[in-house]
Amino acid sequence: MRWTRPLAALALTPVVTSLLAVAPAAAAPAPADSAPETLGRYVAFGDSFVSGPGITPKRAGDCERSTRNFPSLVAAAVPVSGFTDASCGGARIGDLWAAQRDNPPQLDALTPDTGLVTFGTLGGNDVGLVGRAAGCLASDCTGTPDDEYHQSIDATLPRLVEGIQETKRRAPDAVIAVIGYGTYLPPGGCPDNPALSAFSPAEADYIQGLIDHLSDVLEQAAEAEEVLFVDMREIPGSLDHTVCAAPDQQWIRALDTYGDGAPLHPSAAGHEAMAGQVLEVLAYAPTEPPVAIGPVRVGATCAAGDLRVRVRAGDAPVTKVVFRLGNHRLGVDRRAPWVLERRAAGLAGHRGRLTAQVTLRSDEQSLTLRRAVPRPACLR
């Protein structure tokens, strides 16, 4: 992961109270007699999960951009010299280079004085994510961890990396933060919600597994290019604000949007939560890693009906490892040798990828890495 120039010293201007409440780790205000450092121009890339369709007021143009989407809130909260929201509903990764309706290629928004770029979310439209989710409402859609949709998600990685590399070339001094997708469906879905009861628990886990896989690939692209990654799945309380929540508590809208957002997309409150997560990551962006971090590897094996997952991190100061199978938390390990063992019986029914979230800490600084590993035979 790349550790960029510090943002923690930047003064964050007041935004709405709810946004500041979501971002308690945002930097403290600078002294009154000092002017805050300016980041330069801020450019936001992304698809409809960024642009905010259905949230008023909207900006002019055909891209369904809201003035209350998370890039607009971030732009209001950090001292930037200018802001261009280049996101566009329906955008694919290729639209970084190609015009989309009345939107120029998103990369064309970059200039040498660009100091901040939020890269994504991107990739969902390349793999037909929303269409796949909508199809689940009409027919059975449960898949496997290596089906064509998961394969198409893996195939987005080289293009995402290429997009980050081109961003670096055009804006060499910019802090780049790759944005992941969030938690839209809780484990097992919401079978008690009549509007979403067509999603079986297995289907809900499968769709969220696809979303998680997209986020994992975006994180891999960020790590490959050593830039920041904003994991929206780590927003505190996000499981209480999915499509299953009460309408006034939804950060992700279900089918009824209540005039605020689009189906299966973030609401205005969801964008506030996303902005808070971006601000939390940007407030901690030191120029050097807190520790020398070698390769962090994860392996999974099966023996005598047992699943065994092991993290190898060399001398890196690992403080915690969270093991997950899709949305299902398998366990938390807080001491070496960072090994999880579970009976495989019953786990094969859990959809999604097998991952280990590794937290490293030194001198009050921390870094979290997420590593995915192929499902071993006993989970297939």
Descriptors:
four-stranded antiparallel beta sheet; disordered N terminus; 8 helices; five-stranded parallel beta sheet; Immunoglobulin-like; alpha/beta; 380 residues; Rossmann fold; 19% strand
The main β sheet shows up as:
5 strands, parallel
Tell me the helix content.
Answer: 10-25%
Count of runs of 4 or more consecutive helical residues: 8
Q: How would you name the CATH homologous superfamily of the largest domain?
A: SGNH hydrolase
Q: What is the CATH architecture assignment of the largest domain? A: 3-Layer(aba) Sandwich
Uncertain parts: 1-6, 8-36, 285-291
Question: Helix/strand/pairing class, anyone?
Answer: alpha/beta
Outline the structure in words.
The chain is an alpha/beta fold. The radius of gyration is 20 Å and the shape is globular. The strands form 3 sheets. A 5-stranded parallel beta sheet has the order 2-1-3-4-5, sandwiched between helices. A 4-stranded antiparallel beta sheet has the order 9-8-11-12. A 3-stranded antiparallel beta sheet has the order 6-7-10, with no helix packed on it. It is 23% helix and 19% strand. A hairpin with a 2-residue loop joins strand 8 and strand 9. It has 2 domains: 17-282, SGNH hydrolase (Rossmann fold); 297-379, Immunoglobulin-like (Sandwich), CATH 2.60.40. The protein is built from 8 helices and 12 strands. It holds the Pfam family Lipase_GDSL_2. Keywords: Hydrolase, Signal. This is SGNH/GDSL hydrolase family protein. Residues 44-273 form the SGNH hydrolase-type esterase domain. It comes from Nocardioides caricicola.
